[in-house]
Each structure stands twice: as C-alpha cells, then as structure tokens.
Amino acid sequence: MEIKDLFTRQRKYILTLLAVYVLGYGFTSNQSVFAGLIFGTSLSLFNIWLLARKMNSFGDSVVQGKKVRSLGSMSRLATGALAVIVAMEYPDRINLVFTVLGLMTAYIVIMIDFFVQSYQSRN
Questions:
Q1: For this UniProt entry, which segments traverse the membrane (predicted)?
Q2: What was the pLDDT predicted at 28?
Q3: Which domain, by its residues, includes 19?
Q4: 39 contact partners, CB below 8 Å, separation of at least 6
Q5: Residue 69: strand, helix, or coil
Q6: In whole angstroms, what is the distance from residue 98 CA to residue 59 CA?
Q7: Cα Rg for the chain, rounded, in angstroms?
Q8: How far apart (Å, rounded) are the C-alpha atoms in residues 20 and 16?
Q9: Fewer CB under 10 Å: which end of the chain, C or N?
Q10: In the prediction, which pLDDT does 1 show?
Q11: Which of 8, 9, 81 is CA-nearest to residue 40?
C-alpha cells in the first residue's frame, strides 16, 4: 500500500477527531482540555505529515541507491517540545496533559488503522 494512501486515510480520521474536539471546545465548559486536545492533535497531524513526507523521500533514495537520510525524528521531537513549552506558558488556556494526549493521537490512529486494515485484508 502506498504511503500517500495511508496518510490520506489517517488524515481523515485525525481531522474528524479535530472536528469533535472543536465541538467540545465550543459546547462544554472544559475549554482548556479541548484546547489542549486541539493543539496537540494539530501538531500530531503535522508530525504524521512530516513522517509521510520523509518516508516517501526515504523510499525514493533507497530505489535510486542514494545515501539514506534520517526519517526526521529530531523535528518530531522538537514539535513535541514546542507543544509542551506553549502549554506550560499558558496553563489557564491549554491543558498540558491533554496536549500530550493530543500529540499521541496520530500514533494511536496509525495503530488502529493498521489493525483495521489487517482485519479487512483477512476477510
């Protein structure tokens, strides 16, 4: 399966979750919780986009026999650090714990998508 197809499907799932979080932000009194989820999940979507882009260039490099570069772990870690710094700077507006949970959203979506696709391919 193409990385592009995986990313497109996972992006749809994450955008759906973001829509639910925005509704939660607008219609509940837990605005800092949902702001943390929105912020963390948005950066998580950015991280998954970076990963998909790096994996495409990684595959192209392998096919062409070029030297293989990193998959960008440092930039994804820097994004996580940025999220934590911002959440700690504005603790009254952005909940730190839910920001970190939001950062993990893409990886949870990747795992769930893997299990769903594995199940569907067996049946």
A1: 12-28, 34-52, 96-116
A2: 94
A3: 3-122
A4: 83, 86, 87, 94, 99, 102
A5: coil
A6: 34
A7: 16
A8: 6
A9: C
A10: 56
A11: 81
Give the pLDDT confidence score for residue 47 in this predicted structure.
92
Mean pLDDT for each consecutive 10-residue tract of the chain (123 residues)? 84 96 96 96 94 82 76 87 96 96 93 91 85
Q: What is the pLDDT of residue 55?
A: 84
Specify the pLDDT at position 60: 75
Number of H helices, E strands in the chain: 5, 0
- Measured in whole angstroms, the distance separating CA 85 from the mean position of its chain's CA atoms is 18
Output DSSP code: residue 29: S
Residue 56 is encoded by which pair of tokens?
């495409």
Q: How many domains does the chain have?
A: 1
Is 115 exposed, middle or buried (CB count within 10 Å of its CB: 0-12, 13-18, 19+)?
exposed
Looking from the CA of 112 toward its CB, the CA atoms found within 13 Å total: 10
Task: Give helix 31-64 / helix 105-122 axis angle, nearest 10°.
Answer: 60
Distance CA 73, CA 122 (A): 32
